[in-house]
Amino acid sequence: MGGLSPEEWEVLLLSLKVSGVAIAAVLPLAFGLAWMLARWRFPGKVLLDAVVHLPLVLPPVVTGWLLLLTFGTNAPLGRFFADTIGLTFLFRWTGAALAAAVMALPLMVRAMRLSLETVDRRLENAARTLGAGPWRTFFTVTLPLATPGIMAGLVLGLARSVGEFGATITFASNIPGETQTLPLAIYSALQLPGSEWQVARLAGLSVLLSVSALALSEWLSRRNSEGKDRHVL
Amino acid sequence: MSFDIAMTLQRGSLHMTYEFTAGPGLTALFGPSGAGKTSLLDAVAGLARPTDGHIAVAGTVLFDRARKIDLKPEKRRCGYVFQDHRLFPHRSVRRNLLYGWRLVRPEERWLSIDLALDLLGIGHLLDRMPATLSGGEAQRVAIGRALLSAPRFLLMDEPLASVDANRREEILSLIERIRDELKLPILYVSHDRAEVERLAQQIVAVEPVQAKAAPRDQVAPINSRPINMRRISLVPAPMSSSLASRK
Hints:
The structure holds 2 protein chains of 2 kinds. By secondary structure, chain A is mainly α. In chain A, 76% of the residues lie in helices and 0% in strands. In chain A, helix 5 (93-118) crosses helix 7 (134-162) and helix 7 (134-162) runs antiparallel to helix 10 (196-222). In chain A, 36% of the residues are buried. Mean pLDDT of chain A is 89; it is low at 224-228. Chain B is of the alpha/beta class. In chain B, strands 7-8-9-3-10-11 form a 6-stranded mixed sheet, sandwiched between helices. In chain B, helix 3 runs parallel beside helix 5 (135-148) and helix 4 runs antiparallel to helix 5 (135-148). Chain B starts with a strand and ends with a helix. The interface between A and B is medium-sized, with 22 and 31 residues.
């Protein structure tokens, strides 16, 4: 099969960059939303829940179009980011990352919310009576117990963002080296006659990427933190 | 006074009123299940907030509605032994025991780890995970975890319920030593009359709720909403020979 061609490397690295940045940027937001939906009661909760889930149920093309309306050059949020931190999205890899993040968000929120809801609050109470404040309780009890679900959310989000197509091509377009991630490259290759081998290689790459993400999450969730206190007892 | 409690707790539509004071030593809360004994312990631990009243333990005010005092659970320094041991499932026995121990200043600790392991007979369990423990073992670890957090008072909710007979005696005498040598105030919930008679300096009888909640279709005006009073009375403990000689 041989090594990857420079073009394939470019597509792979761009895909990794887009997905990696998308997930890293959206993770705190997803966790915050999951926490709010799992633990808080506030007016408008149902509405927030619906908005978070929109990208899951809308056709991705529509999500892409909505992104154009909100993050385009002359759109309110697009202008805001351009004016404040000089960040533009249109026809740039940052746009592909934004589209990937928005599409991954609902899956991540769902998985994390579910895991937070299963954490036994009585264990958190026990930690409080043992002298742990809310933050310590969060990091020593809540977070470790919710970790499998958070990992599942990460992997789901990563898989979704690596595979993202419709919103990306609508919002950020299909520009080789800038916004052409793996699925877009496969789509472009399919348009050319006699490129079956090229398509197969890119598809294989895509499968490899997904399987490694799955293996990584499995490894992360199984790694335990035993042995830290052995020097005391 | 070790315990000075006068408060109202709301649970659903029920308003439960508790009022009692208790002197030093071990105070047993005795009464049928569902009478609200655990709710009372939760409020003293800071896990449930009373709608009114005050809670003071050993001269420290933990809660006072009128004075707007409401200490956070982690500031109350209580050793709470739950009915369902509540060991952290993701931590080994060792790391469960050390959880509270690490959070107190060394000079405030009054029980060494070695002594706790010895008294509770849990030294061989250190590397086990809670899921692999028997009910009695888990409960002994839970007692150890609470004691090692160097509490200023103890809340024990049926701590011996799942402990087998031969360990029971050792734990009973451990509780007696904590009561007599460390002079920690203890609130102790139990159904077991023999246990209560042996341990308690005073017994508080918690009576079940008598009044019924208002029917749903009949909305009472606010000022006459029925309040289900829970009477709590102080009953002197029977003067068994052991208790008499202690006094």
